[in-house]
Give the backbone structure.
Amino acid sequence: MSTGTITAPPSAVTTAFPTAAVEAQLRSSLVDVVDGTAAISGIVLPADPVGKCAASIQVDSLDVVDILCGVEGIVGFELKDSIVRAGGYKSINEAIGHVLPRIQSAWQKQQGKGSK
């Protein structure tokens, strides 16, 4: 009779994409960038966060690429610059609407690599 312990093989752990955390990081960083751009350009933005995110203001693609670094700590891997559309975006909401699903797609691919 054996007294050793029997361990089950490791099972694949499924973790949900941290949508809320990624979106909050993107939104916060984009608001900071847009506030700075507006101040330099003399553009008056709405004071409320919802209005600010919907306001028509150019969001530079290079700024969005820089913001991806803050998201990498949440998703746990390096994000490719190609997630961001060349030429930028016309609002914070447009940037988030384009970038967030692409980050989620990259995250899902990364999760698939980890289970192999």
